[in-house]
Amino acid sequence: DAGVTQSPTHLIKTRGQQVTLRCSPKSGHDTVSWYQQALGQGPQFIFQYYEEEERQRGNFPDRFSGHQFPNYSSELNVNALLLGDSALYLCASSFIGYGYTFGSGTRLTVV
Amino acid sequence: GQQVMQIPQYQHVQEGEDFTTYCNSSTTLSNIQWYKQRPGGHPVFLIQLVKSGEVKKQKRLTFQFGEAKKNSSLHITATQTTDVGTYFCAGIGNQGGKLIFGQGTELSVKP
Question: What is the homologous superfamily of the domain B4-110 according to CATH?
Fold first, then answer.
């Protein structure tokens, strides 16, 4: 049984560009959450999707947007990239009442 | 907004010594979860606590949830080199929704 799959694993982008990260949740999970983790820090909550709707959002600017598809997979889009957006982006899937399963993450470097 | 704080930030122990990390929330939590992240890895779910005063054990690991549901602790007895990593607590507030992570406690174990 596959866990959470994220793609790509690594990405290098230039300031001002746009990026799309993808996530396939664990089988049976219907909720997807996205986190940003800077080096040496805890994961910071970006937003959560359930039934194709953004259910919760953290303190991130509108440059960060997302989508959830009918098969529960999800995308994270970041526009107008800044150097400070360089981080590990983690996708986590869950089913209500249970712990989160994290993917291995996408390492984004903005130059 | 909801904040989760963890102490200490770092803990260096000799193999065989005990280890404890503490977690405090600014608001009452509906549940608290603990995760372990190995160096270069992603967070892995360890356990979830939902009841006031709850204590759960997993082999050498003991987890507690405070009576007021605002604090928690993780205690490892007789640490081993395989315990190395960063331990995160993460809580969901009473209004539900987003899982907020603490900053983590990085554990190193000297053989």
Answer: Immunoglobulins (2.60.40.10)
Segment B90-111 shows an average pLDDT of: 91
Question: How many contacts (CB atoms, under 8 Å) link A and B?
Answer: 52
| Domain enclosing residue A100, as ranges | 5-110
Instruction: Give me the CATH number covering residue A28.
Output: 2.60.40.10
Rounded to a whole number of angstroms, the distance from the CA of B87 to the nearest CA of chain A is: 10
Number of domains in chain A: 1
**pLDDT at residue A96, as a whole number:** 82
- Quick one: tokens of A2? 């596959």
The residue ranges of every structural domain in chain B are: 4-110
Task: Please answer yes or no on whether B101 and A103 come within 8 Å at the CB atom.
Answer: no
Residues 6+ away with beta carbon under 8 Å from B111: B15, B81
Q: How close A17 comes to chain B (CA, Å)?
A: 26
β-pair type (B4-7, B19-25): antiparallel
Q: Which of B2, B32, B99 to mutate to test the interface with A (most CBs of A within 10 A)?
A: B99
**B25 has pLDDT over 80:** yes
Q: What is the mean pLDDT of chain A?
A: 95
pLDDT band at A60 (very low <50, low <70, confident <90, very high): very high
DSSP assigned state of A50: E
